[in-house]
Inverse folding.
């Protein structure tokens, strides 16, 4: 059967190397570490699989390029964008269109026959055929009134015109044998083909590619409301926990600045007749800091605070002591809530209902908070303790009492400030970040899980804070 | 390096695995095919109990290769993973050959005879092609990973006293990780990456039917559906494929006709293994199961 679409656009090997390199470049741009050796592997792998099969092609690339689940996710998103838009981009560049042939093909086709063919292709699950038929179907039905312009609507319209629905087929015409049932999953596949072809056509018509935006940070921002995505919160917490659990390992290999364990060295020397041939070192103990966390829970920063507290409490093994406080106008200790409650939403609810932190206005009063904090636990603060403040430093025009804050900084060993606002907004409006920042050992912006993770690394690992 | 057993295509690799009782999905089949064609190690990650270790075993069965397994744990060092000199035998040799010259003894006691081969060394030195399974690589520390690099990229091991031992036959190397920590870039770079996840409904059905062929199809479907429901909950340890199979076999033994609330509560401990999880599952899944039974009783 002659192809109704005319000659294929060339997409053979000469262009592929460049395409693939471009693709890797794009991946690097999204933060996936793709090394030269990975690219070489990808080419080697592609020699082994048939390119005609899209799945094999993609899997072969993924196995050699995307080396973690996160990478794989980015890979999937980009793969689609790069390889299936690349052909279209080139078509636009060269001004290639298929107008004439498509209409011809559409008109020549018998609708009933097309329906039957599509049905068969769907049941057989043949991707290549489905794709070809999807194009035919669009040619046949898609042009009645130019389409709605919304791809999803058009897909459903064409599906209905084709009288395709999942499950057992309602009618068998003219005493013919009952039509085989269509699986939902298979129908979805056909719809995906339809969608892609429609998008392709849209691109051709408007001669522009849909805007591509960078994926990084797109969905990695901190949860902005506790109900947003609990699963994501849990995932982030457990992931962080795992990473931090192995933190000490990096320190293990370092021989610098180790102290000799005299007792064990002497014992070991017995083997060599009392001559200390082998030095024994004291094992390096991980630093287990005492941590005091102060979190602003006024509406603007609640979720970031609760999330941060959850993370810290999930990690409480790494600290000798962990006490958490929340504040708005007043300060209140919530360590117990976290010890007894695991559920994120429940914690958020209890903090807001039992914290007793808002007096009248519900606006943060930093100055008063420092005073209260200092009177309550200044005796417990010593050089081994770390104080972490999470807040946006927006005083709502009240007295910031930076001098009291300085006293806290003096007593505590380390003092960090986490600001859930991007650095750009610091010191704008009523933010008095600069007044506090002077006294901190480190001030970090903290609005994505990655920021948070970096910070927790610094605190738990005892690595000097790098900006 | 293509020997007779190397599959010629992805489909063939998949068939070979299926013949070894392992129903691989597309990506698993493709990656194991690539591993054999390119001679590269495979890093398999995924939740516990999705058949990572089983994949290596199936590869061994499919290729008629011997499986050499190195189970990793914290504190594993090269003496236990690579090789060790047999000190006692060396001492004996020195004492026994009292009159031999120093030079002779010196050369002699550092020869292959006095070498204790540990799994990695065994895999390299074996004359028949093998499958080397390095299980739960994430349990070791980073130094150990670094030690593996030479093995993984060049399939050789350097022993200071003996020189380099290169593989005489290309082993298939499978590393598994539960993702409990980030592996180093250097290690990942040398491997093909495969993420195994819980199988889709149809495939898990097939797996259950393969391992418990006597189970009626309707019951098998019901069972897989329930297991999937349980996995959706936020559990400490979601049920693995192995546990699904165990459960299927248990149901066979119990002679259950359908999974109703009672059967479920009796046999639930096979798929759920934490006190808190059991409560949660009984509450969420058990309740749902009650409904279809009512009209019958």
């Amino acid at each position: 059967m002659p192809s109704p679409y005319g000659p294929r656009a060339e997409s053979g090997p000469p262009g592929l190397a460049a395409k693939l390199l471009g693709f890797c470049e794009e991946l690097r741009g999204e933060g996936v570490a793709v090394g030269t050796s990975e690219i070489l592997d990808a080419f080697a792998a592609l020699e082994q699989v048939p390119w005609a099969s899209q799945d094999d092609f993609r899997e072969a690339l993924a196995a050699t390029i995307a080396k973690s689940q996160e990478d794989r996710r980015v890979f999937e998103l980009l793969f689609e964008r790069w390889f299936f838009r690349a052909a279209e981009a080139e078509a636009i560049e060269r001004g290639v269109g298929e107008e004439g042939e498509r209409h011809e093909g559409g008109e020549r086709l018998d609708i009933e026959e097309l329906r039957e063919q599509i049905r068969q292709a769907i049941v057989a699950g043949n991707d290549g055929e489905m794709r070809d038929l999807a194009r035919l179907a669009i040619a046949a039905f898609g042009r009645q009134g130019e389409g709605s312009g919304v791809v999803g609507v058009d897909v459903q319209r064409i599906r209905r015109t084709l009288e395709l629905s999942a499950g057992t087929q309602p009618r068998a015409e003219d005493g013919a044998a009952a039509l085989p049932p269509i699986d939902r999953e298979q129908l979805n596949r056909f719809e995906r083909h339809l969608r892609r072809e429609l998008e392709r056509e849209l691109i051709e018509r408007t001669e522009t590619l849909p805007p591509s935006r960078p994926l990084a940070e797109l969905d990695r921002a901190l949860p902005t409301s506790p109900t947003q995505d609990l699963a994501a919160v849990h995932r982030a917490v457990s992931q962080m926990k795992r990473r931090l659990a192995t933190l000490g390992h990096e320190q293990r290999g370092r021989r610098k600045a180790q102290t000799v364990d005299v007792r064990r060295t002497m014992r070991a020397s017995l083997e060599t007749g009392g001559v200390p041939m082998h030095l024994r070192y004291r094992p390096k103990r991980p630093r287990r800091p005492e941590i005091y966390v102060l979190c602003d829970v006024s509406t603007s920063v609640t979720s970031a605070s609760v999330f941060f507290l959850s993370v810290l409490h999930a990690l409480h093994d790494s600290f000798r002591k962990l006490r958490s406080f929340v504040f708005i106008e007043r300060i209140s200790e919530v360590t117990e809530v976290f010890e007894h409650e695991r559920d994120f939403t429940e914690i958020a609810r209890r903090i807001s209902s039992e914290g007793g932190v808002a007096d009248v206005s519900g606006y943060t009063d930093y100055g008063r908070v420092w005073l209260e904090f200092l009177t309550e636990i200044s005796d417990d603060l010593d050089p081994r303790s770390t104080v972490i403040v999470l807040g946006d430093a927006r005083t709502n025009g009240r007295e910031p009492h930076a001098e009291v804050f300085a006293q806290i900084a003096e007593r505590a060993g380390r003092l960090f400030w986490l600001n859930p606002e991007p650095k750009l907004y610091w010191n704008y409006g009523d933010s008095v970040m600069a007044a506090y920042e002077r006294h901190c050992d480190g001030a970090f912006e903290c609005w994505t899980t990655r920021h948070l993770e970096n910070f927790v690394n610094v605190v738990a690992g005892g690595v000097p804070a790098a900006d | 390096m293509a020997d007779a057993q190397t599959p010629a295509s992805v489909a063939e690799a998949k068939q070979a695995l299926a013949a070894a009782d392992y129903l691989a999905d597309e990506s698993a089949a493709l990656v194991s095919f690539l591993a054999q064609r390119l001679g590269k190690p495979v890093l398999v990650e995924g939740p516990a109990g999705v058949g990572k270790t089983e994949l290596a075993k199936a590869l061994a069965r499919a290729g008629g290769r011997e499986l050499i397994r190195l189970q990793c744990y914290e504190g594993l060092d090269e003496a236990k993973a690579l090789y060790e000199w047999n000190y006692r035998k060396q001492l004996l040799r020195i004492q026994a050959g009292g009159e031999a010259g120093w030079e002779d003894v010196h050369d002699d006691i550092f020869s292959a005879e006095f070498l204790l081969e540990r799994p990695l060394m065994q895999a390299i030195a074996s004359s028949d092609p093998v499958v080397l399974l390095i299980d739960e690589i994430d349990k070791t520390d980073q130094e150990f990973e670094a030690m593996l690099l030479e093995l993984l990229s060049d399939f050789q091991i350097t022993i200071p006293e003996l020189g380099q031992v290169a593989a005489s036959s290309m082993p298939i190397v499978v590393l598994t990780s539960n993702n409990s920590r980030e592996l180093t870039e250097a290690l990942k770079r040398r491997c093909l990456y495969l993420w195994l996840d819980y199988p889709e409904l149809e495939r898990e059905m097939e797996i259950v039917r393969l391992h418990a062929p006597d189970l009626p199809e309707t019951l098998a479907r019901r069972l897989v559906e329930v297991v999937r429901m349980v996995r959706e909950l936020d559990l400490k340890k979601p049920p693995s494929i192995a546990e699904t199979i165990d459960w299927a076999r248990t149901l066979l033994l119990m002679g259950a006709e359908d999974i109703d609330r009672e059967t479920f509560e009796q046999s639930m401990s096979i798929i759920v293994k934490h006190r808190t999880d059991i409560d949660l599952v009984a509450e969420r899944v058990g309740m749902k199961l009650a409904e279809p039974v009512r009209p019958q009783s």
Summary: Residues 301 and 391 of chain A are 7 Å apart (CA to CA).
